[in-house]
Amino acid sequence: MASLWDDLESLVDSPSSSAAESGQRGTIKPKANFDAEKDAAALKDAIEGLGTTNEKVLIEILTQRSNGQRQLICKAYEGATGRTLEKDLKGDTGGDFEKLLLALITPPAAYDCHEVTQAMKGAGTKDSVLIEIFASRSKQQIEALKDVYRKETEKDLIEKLTSEVSGDFSKALILLAKGERDGSNSVDVGKAREDAEKTLYKAGEKKWGTDESKFIEILCKRSIPQLRQTLVEYKNISGKTLQQSIEGEMSGELEELLVAVAVKCVKSLPAYFAELLHKSMKGSGTDESTLTRIMVSRSEIDLLDIRAEFKKLFEHSLLSNIESDVSGEYGDCLKPICGGDD
């Protein structure tokens, strides 16, 4: 889907995607007149009531409160029942619906940490999950993720990643996980031109055999505004986009990571997530884990922007795609997180 990412007009002047972390573009906001004890009591009744669990109450409360408010509900619930809400949800719900509810009551950094840990479990690392998280999260989010990992395992995440992945893909992923990207908002046009011409162009298009290390160093360390300028300069010099060059010169996980981190997330995080959401629901079978992860993790950050990009790219709304692709309590819970039609 390279054509979605070829337009470089206005790229340099567009706001940094990571700035959306202020929460102004999320679909879920803190509830006014919030009462954690009242919500906890309602959840207790919904779970302990005669007969089956009242899923509607679970959905109504947990999708209409901010994550910070949900943490207070969890505390109040345990105080009232002597049990954790997590344990009770695991006992009374199941499948993708259960996983979605558990994601909603998990603090964002812990949720990211658990997703990364799960991706490294068992035979074969789920590289696509690692790429999505480390390519899209801010420096602060990655630090918070690593802190949770350290507290929960008493181990270092960088060391674990190093043992799980290898080659040039490992070098790039580790740089991102170390949080070595420049956080500056200033742009050095001369440096961008030099990176584009003397380093990236010479290391790729102009060279017999690609020098991946040069690509990794620049694309994983330069600031977002600086990389945006570099993309423009590269197109001016080479006549093709950096994404086209990466896809022509590289393959496998390294190609996927560099395209994600250096092109898609640099240009537009909402468009990147819109594409991943579309892919998760395309064709036969739904990738529920990706669908859940993106809907929950972006619900208080930029899901409104993701919805707008989804409509622009695929000519139908995210909500309509969810309604046609998933059903049952899982679908009923995703719809209020989505927050409306477009």
From TrEMBL:
The keyword Cytoplasm does not apply. PROSITE patterns: ANNEXIN_1, ANNEXIN_2. InterPro entries: Annexin, Annexin_repeat, Annexin_repeat_CS, Annexin_sf. The keyword Calcium applies. GO terms for cellular component: cytoplasm; nucleus; plasma membrane; vesicle membrane. It comes from the Eukaryota. GO terms for molecular function: calcium ion binding; calcium-dependent phospholipid binding; phosphatidylserine binding. Gene3D superfamilies: Annexin. Keywords: Annexin, Calcium, Calcium/phospholipid-binding, Phosphoprotein, Repeat. A pair of annexin repeats may form one binding site for calcium and phospholipid. Belongs to the annexin family. This is Annexin.
